[in-house]
Amino acid sequence: MRRKGLASMAVQTIATSNDTADNAAENAADTPVDLGPAQALSCRECGHRVPLGPSFACEECFGPLEIAYDFTSYDTEELRARIESGPANIWRYAPLLPVPADVAEKPNINPGWTKLVKADNLAAALGVSPGKLFIKDDSGNPTHSFKDRVVAQALEAARAFGFTTLSCSSTGNLAGAVGAAAARAGLRSCVFIPHDLEQGKVVMAAVYGGELVGIEGNYDDVNRFCSELIGDAAGEGWGFVNVNLRPYYAEGSKTLAYEICEQLGWELPDQIVVPIASGSQLTKIDKGLQELIKLGLVADKPYKIFGAQAEGCSPVSVAYKAGHDVVRPQKPDTIAKSLAIGNPADGPYVLDIARRTGGAVEDVTDEQIVDAIKLLARTEGIFAETAGGVTVGVTRKLIEAGVLDPSLTTVVLNTGDGLKTLDAVAGTGLTATIRPTLDSFREAGLA
Amino acid sequence: MRRKGLASMAVQTIATSNDTADNAAENAADTPVDLGPAQALSCRECGHRVPLGPSFACEECFGPLEIAYDFTSYDTEELRARIESGPANIWRYAPLLPVPADVAEKPNINPGWTKLVKADNLAAALGVSPGKLFIKDDSGNPTHSFKDRVVAQALEAARAFGFTTLSCSSTGNLAGAVGAAAARAGLRSCVFIPHDLEQGKVVMAAVYGGELVGIEGNYDDVNRFCSELIGDAAGEGWGFVNVNLRPYYAEGSKTLAYEICEQLGWELPDQIVVPIASGSQLTKIDKGLQELIKLGLVADKPYKIFGAQAEGCSPVSVAYKAGHDVVRPQKPDTIAKSLAIGNPADGPYVLDIARRTGGAVEDVTDEQIVDAIKLLARTEGIFAETAGGVTVGVTRKLIEAGVLDPSLTTVVLNTGDGLKTLDAVAGTGLTATIRPTLDSFREAGLA
Known about the structure:
The structure is a homodimer of 447-residue chains.
Chain A: H1 21-28, E1 38-43, E2 49-50, E3 65-69, H2 76-84, E4 115-118, H3 120-126, E5 133-137, H4 147-160, E6 165-169, H5 173-185, E7 188-194, H6 199-206, E8 211-215, H7 219-230, E9 238-240, H8 246-251, H9 254-263, E10 271-275, H10 280-294, E11 304-310, H11 315-322, H12 347-357, E12 360-364, H13 366-380, H14 386-400, E13 410-414, E14 432-434, H15 438-443
Parallel strand pairs in A: 5-13, 6-7, 6-9, 7-8, 10-11, 10-13, 11-12
Antiparallel strand pairs in A: 1-2, 1-3, 4-5
Helix pairs in contact in A: 3-13, 4-5, 9-10, 10-12, 11-12, 13-14
């Protein structure tokens, strides 16, 4: 499947836009920790660079900090061979992530390398050409959501910075991912949740044995408290995966892009449909695709990224349709709880990427989400959480609207597991009830 | 990791005890379907052979029918290379399974190649030597239990025999596995369950969109009805995965043995702890290990197989301890529902294997099961269903009793997912509740 044309790039070395051989050397001095190819933190807005550390906002302009890498030493075909012979998890891409080279040897939950399912039955139902529709099914991760990918990066950063407690605020998937990762790594974990969360979610978060602290207040109160804790002496030694470790954490989503392309035989898909919560995942998938192009691992060609939201929490979709560059916050009201971020930090970047690539942002109602969960389950045997209903539902809507081209290779993300959002399909039930006799069976028309 | 000594076996070809080149040729005539190396069905008790078909009991002696293979054409190192370059699922072992050679190309849910987790934290807790304890974590399968492995075999048999409906009786994991597999394959599914099952389990089984039929009666009534249906014209075209397709279905458990050995670098473990429901899984793991030895893929050495039951359903454990060869049925009463088979069909074979290999059969109380689920979660970040609590709990008990040697390589099976048996750990909850202030945080002693 590998394109012959790439062979001509075998002797080429590649630098990303942020890194040249010169500034990579300059950064070596300000890098006290070993996080592999990660060299520094760089502001996404103003480009200001600071050493690798537990920082997330630019001290100059308050813009978000991102990882700046040095990929200059990589030979394309050597890198490809190294990846292909690597482990069946995200650490096959360790040379492209902010982790030490020996990361695969350390105790961690080794997420990733989830299935890319050729979804011909779903394709037929949606009018997509056979062989062109794929589901990237991240319910196959250890705690059954894509959060394992991002937490695994944050864990390495926490180790590098000498943190002893792994923490987060959460109402769901993230709590389990942090609890499991910390348990395997032998770190303490402390997860903060609203005190009145449903019992099932509490159990899922509590079983890993870390501290699980209920905060008397709503999710906003929990977040405010966590920010306060980070700035206080009481928070010393604490790594909040999605706050002071966020630049590292967020990079985990790049692995979705890497895996999709490798699983397509080192080709870019034409179209990708990605759920939007904070928007970070979508921006990192774009970053990952760009890196593969620059590294010569895939041939450059146009691709479109589509963002998917629930109507009950659709700030980015609303802004997209209105032609705005900024996102007006919403108060979420949707069954898609894992996407219910009313003020998505990366909203403006998502708008930019959707427009730049020729994609779009769309939303679906809760009813359409449930329909899409059931459609995916009965066509492909994949039981998605509500976020998967959002992406499949938006895919259907965009095809019907003529926005998404059903003749092109399309990858739809399922980022979580239906077992965690059973309530969404609680109406599903028995198709018949019979007595244990053949007569009763025949009467029910089941033969 | 591969042993050098094996190289000397490179030109050798291997036959299993049931198959010689002669009777393989003889069987070619009575094999109307292509199920790869599977040649016939052979009675485990009397050896009587019949052509491949939807049969499960010997017409001569009513003994259970098993698959007889022809592996005579395999060269050890060619086979190893073929396996190692195969897909990251059970179909890498297609040459050793009753499936056509092109099975990986057909739509199915591609289970297997789940993680073998080096469980050093759990080892420390149990007093096992570092690097010697592993969890084979089958919660990573598509519907999060090992049932995906066995249903995938039954699906191929159903296709080969021209069945149009995939069916089973179930109260849990099997229903989901059959529903998902049939959906992906484009077959109709019809799953029979007791009509008064808990709503959560009904939803998990119903979401895949097949027929889900509630039977007015208990699980025994459901099973009796299914047997009646198979013998009736109304059941024509129906493949019951665990009844008339059982010989094929059961072979799926061999893949656990294959994966464990390959993931250990083509070595046999010294000790394996396997849960016992019908006992079929344990017998097929032994069969798989024996095949690897005969094929030269692993060096022969002694291994011990240990069976694990819940005290509330411990017919095999009781028989083992009493020195009996037969198993007296019990009425199950345990939280380990997925193992609650009071009259296990393969009980006598399990007793034989445990004794022959120098293993044992042991059971644990419901309280010990819950403790073991929590222990596994907090040490390794793996959230097991109750069956995983049974194996980990029995492992602990056998180590404490000096029966299981903590200095040897030991693999413990986790065959399912804690998300499906949340009730078992429902007592788990918040470790603290605080107000959203630093003072409250400090007062709670969380810093």
